Each structure stands twice: as C-alpha cells, then as structure tokens.
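Researcher: We're reviewing a set of sequences before deciding which ones to prioritize for further study. For each one, I'd like a predicted 3D structure that I can look through quickly. This is EAL domain-containing protein. If possible, include the structure in token form so it fits the rest of the review sheet.
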Amino acid sequence: RSKDAGGGTFHTYEPQLHVAAEERRVLEMALRQALTNGEMHLNYQPVVSAGTGGLMGFEALLRWSHPQLGNVSPAKFIPLAEDARMIAPIGEWVLRTACEEAARWANPVRVAVNVSPEQLHNPNFVTVVASALSNSGLPADRLELEVTESVFMKEGTCAVQVLEKILDLGVRLSLDDFGTGYSSLGYLSRTRFSSIKIDRSFVTQASKGVREAIAIIRAVVALAQSLDMATTAEGVETEAEHRMVQDLGCTKVQGYYFGRPLPVDEARALANRRYDDAAAA
Ligand code: C2E
Ligand code: MG
Ligand code: MG
Ligand code: MG
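Model: Here's the predicted structure for EAL domain-containing protein, in token form for your review sheet.
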C-alpha cells in the first residue's frame, strides 16, 4: 500500500480507507454482541496420522454467523477481536465449549484449541484452562493448545510462565503456523511443545516443486524429530500432497483431503464411529 500511497495519489486512497474503517466499526459493534446473541459456534477439523490415516483428534475452529452480515471469516474477525481487546472472553468461550463437546466423544481423541497471544499475557489464563477441564471432565491430556510464534515476541510478559503452568496441568502445546512468523528457534528449547504445525503455505509451495519450501519442511521435520516433537502438515488438499508430506516425514496431517472443518454432530459421529471400528476389530 505504501508504494502507491505516495505523493498526489494519496487522496484517492482516502475513500477506501474510510470504507475499511467503517466496515471495521460495524464488525466490531456486531462482534461485541456475538457471544450473547449465540451467533458463535465451533467446527472441528480432523487431524489424522500420516502413516495409518487413523483419526488422532480435531482442531476446533471458531465460526461466526451474523443475521445480517452472514458468515464472517475468522481470518477477519479474530485479528479484529485481538485489536479491540475482545479476544479474552471469546477465547474463553471457545476453550470451555471445545472441552465440553470433546468430553462427550466416546473415542479418546484430542481436541486442539487456538489461543491468541493476548490470552497468554494474562496470568489468570491458567485458572481458565484448569476450570474448563474440571467443569467439562475432559482429561487434561486430551486438550492441546495451539499457540503461534508471535507469543514469544513481546518482551517482559508472563507468557512463558503461563505456558509452563499449562504444561504442568498435563495439557499439550503445539506451535501453529510454524515458519510464518519471526522464527527464533531459542524458545523451542525452552518451552515443551508436543508438535510443530507446518503452515499450509509451505505444503502448497512444496507440492509445486519449490525447492526452498521442500528444504524448509525437511529441516523442520529433522528439528522436530531431534526434539521429540511431532510434525503436523497443515492444508493438505490432495493425495499427491499427502504422499509428499508423508515422504518428507511429517507425522500428522490435516487438510481438506482428509476432511473439512465439521459441525459438532458430524465430528462426534466420526470420533465415535472410529471407536466402534476399533472395538469391533
Ligand atoms: P489455523 O489455526 O492455522 O487453522 C487452520 C486454517 O486452515 C482454518 O481456517 C482451516 O479451515 C484452514 N484449512 C484447513 N485445511 C485446509 C485446506 O486443506 N485448504 C485450505 N485452503 N484451508 C484449510 P479458518 O477456520 O478460516 O481459521 C483461520 C485462522 O483463524 C486459524 O488458522 C486461526 O489462526 C484463527 N482461528 C480460528 N478459530 C480460532 C479461535 O477459536 N481462536 C483463535 N485465537 N484463533 C482462531
Ligand atoms: Mg490452529
Ligand atoms: Mg495453523
Ligand atoms: Mg495456518
């Protein structure tokens, strides 16, 4: 934007900026009411073993459908909720709901919940996690929290200590969207992650034969193996991509090829069906 905004062309951008600001204002006002109006729900996307194809768990993904605005993408409203300091109550609702719903699945598959940096900069978040577990009855080892590298960028916060206390509860951590942030590998040795999620952009690039992307996936897999962590390839859309990430050594896969994010009833049916299969075998 900056390269076009110079000199005399600047004024032509004003109307657009105004529209964007107006849209933000409308979305933000609507977002403030979204939870109390019952407009939010969770979808669950299967995460499967790269080797066996067996169901390992689901990632809970937040959905917002507003009566007038329609379905708003989390890629849009999550950053807005973070900026407008609304992410803590929304994130708490996601966590409690995901734990309650996952506690009803017969098969002990995991549920992964995305957590925004802002939530981890608050020391009370540990209590929120503990109470989401005890209220739902979900065993701690069936909950996984997904955090992004940006958590470690802010100086002088309690985020690392909060993560330590969450680990002490028996909850797992995974590092989401790996490679898209300002990677500094130091924190990988300081915080105990169970898995690294390789961002979809690398999977897509690698499947097009981009050598750098393939090299990065290889390096991340090697790093994860030596640190005893799993690797999840995100955004696997085709059989060819599945084969590629499998060959590169990724241990788990997630993507439209294995399943889209599902409504809770379908996720429960899937979890329970796999359980029935296992019981019958
Ligand atoms: P994420 O955590 O990296 O989640 C994966 C995103 O990739 C999801 O988008 C999912 O629907 C999408 N995806 C999965 N497989 C495929 C595929 O094969 N192809 C393509 N094209 N996309 C695929 P979604 O649901 O739109 O969420 C976007 C982002 O919003 C998430 O990225 C996450 O960062 C954030 N988000 C979603 N729910 C929550 C939440 O409850 N709390 C927080 N803090 N962030 C959330
Ligand atoms: Mg995620
Ligand atoms: Mg991700
Ligand atoms: Mg991603």
